[in-house]
Amino acid sequence: ASLISKVTDAVLEQVVEWQSRPLDTVYPIVYLDCIVVKVRQNKQVINKAIYLALGVNMEGQKELLGMWMSETEGAKFWLSVLTELQNRGVNDILIACVDGLKGFPDAINAVYPKTQIQLCIVHMVRNSMKYVPWKDYKAITADLKEIYQATT
């Protein structure tokens, strides 16, 4: 077996244990996002969606709640992620910070009906910048950064 196979086999049990560990009952903020990565599968390089749930616990510490892999990003898969978080002990999320994926708010509210949904600042800035001429890009970005970093 290859070195990578030996290493992954050695830690697989710990990974499964980590991925299924009990979680806190309440997270004031949970960031939910998906990144697309290239992976080698059957001697081909393909795209896979990696779902990430990053929680801020009651002590203000960031905690990676889990990582999941799928073929593509979709609200249906997010629903299964949120259901798993609930099954692992998360009873309440006060604010879910997400991108603008269609159906995402419905998936969140199906599992956590009282959760407030906040569009991620990065996505808000990206959406705002779609309409800015290139020559004004730097100045507008600096202004938006100041707005989003304001204390109130």
UniProtKB/TrEMBL annotation:
Any GO BP: DNA transposition
Annotated keywords: DNA recombination, DNA-binding, Transposable element, Transposition
Gene Ontology molecular-function annotations: DNA binding; transposase activity
Signal sequence, start to end: none
Keyword Oxidoreductase among record annotations: no
Entry keyword annotation includes Glycoprotein: no
InterPro entries the record matches: Transposase_mutator
Protein family according to the UniProt entry: Belongs to the transposase mutator family.
Task performed by this protein: Required for the transposition of the insertion element.
Name the record gives this protein: Mutator family transposase
Protein species of origin: Pseudoalteromonas citrea DSM 8771
